[in-house]
């Protein structure tokens, strides 16, 4: 039931906020979010999640799960 989503900034110029909706990720209801590379919990999300300030050519991988 866990889902991992990679947020990739393909731009060259600036950090970007990147959003995924639950429909796009195949999720429903509230989930907990965890940054897999930083090894930290990001709290509860419901309906969508936005990775903030992903650097140019950078990536953030978030795991969504039910607690």
In short:
The protein is mostly beta strands. The protein is built from one helix and six strands; from the N terminus they run ββαββββ.
Structure description:
The protein is mainly β and 67 residues long. The strands form two sheets. The protein has a four-stranded antiparallel sheet, with no helix packed on it. Helix content is 6%, strand content 55%. The mean pLDDT is 96. Strand 3 (31-35) and strand 4 (40-45) form a beta hairpin. The protein is globular, with a radius of gyration of 12 Å.
Number of strands: 6
What's the overall geometry?
globular
Count of helix runs: 1
Q: Would you tell me the overall average pLDDT?
A: 96
Helices and strands, in order, run as EEHEEEE
Unreliable runs: none
% residues in beta strands: over 45%
Q: What is the alpha-carbon Rg in Å?
A: 12 Å
Helical amount: under 10%
Overall SS class: mainly beta
Strand order of the largest sheet: 1-6-3-4
Question: For the terminal residues, how far apart are their CA atoms?
Answer: 11 Å
Characterize the biggest β-sheet. Answer: 4 strands, antiparallel
Quaternary structure annotation: single chain
